[in-house]
Amino acid sequence: MKRWNANLPALVLLFALLLVWQLGATGMDAAYILPSPTQILVRMWELREPLLTAHLPATLLCTGIGLAISVVLGLLLAVLMDASPVAEKMLYPLIVASQTIPTTALAPLFVLWFGYTIWSKVLVTVLITFFPIAITVFDGFRSVKTDMMDMLQTFGAGQREIFLKLKLPAALPYFFSAIKMAIPLSIIGAAIGEWLGAQAGLGYFSRRMMTQLDGAGVFAPIVLLSAVAMLAVAAVSWIEKRVITWRGSL
User: Fold this and answer.
1) Does the pLDDT of residue 249 top 60, yes or no?
2) Mean pLDDT over the full length of the chain
3) Rounded to an integer, what distance in angstroms lies between the CA atom of residue 119 and that of residue 212?
4) What is the rounded distance in angstroms from the CA atom of residue 47 to the CA atom of residue 138?
5) Membrane-crossing residues (predicted)?
6) Within a domain: residue 189?
């Protein structure tokens, strides 16, 4: 009951937005430009077989590989920058600069290099996703108070013990926050890569529906992507509550 009451304002706002959308789309009477939510749901049901059996698995595979690479790369960069001030000065500006490059400009190059294989989409996903993981976890390492580190050092703890017993637990909440940010970004990256060059995937399917002036068909995979992202973030939040017990309710 408490959880229902906490989610009630969000549900009310979502219902109000959907109602306004439904009324506005009905008044326009131009489904190829702005389909109504009911038209999108009907179209999703009509397209359920290609969406769920062919294109959703392709997008999830690309997202999963890209997210896994981003987690490993982001953690390695965060640990390296925390361990070495020289590495921080060298890597931090490059990591920030990597996010200033328009993804839509690089994605076609990845397609030229790797063709319509999965790796062109994975690279787009990694480019977008590794940044919040590296920066957020690095901030988690730096959140440890100096006096706590000094206290452990007085008891004879070395850098390895300080990292495992102090910095790692302190950065764990930051890690889960980074993952919850990275999941939607990884799905967006996969969809962008599929939109610009692919033979399967929800992004590719949405672009194909656009060429047919099927507005509801364009929105159908987008709604499916949003639902997948929300379910994945909810799963991570569930795991977070059971791993980080000392924070209480999140």
Assistant:
1) no
2) 84
3) 28
4) 43
5) 54-79, 91-116, 122-141, 174-198, 218-239
6) yes
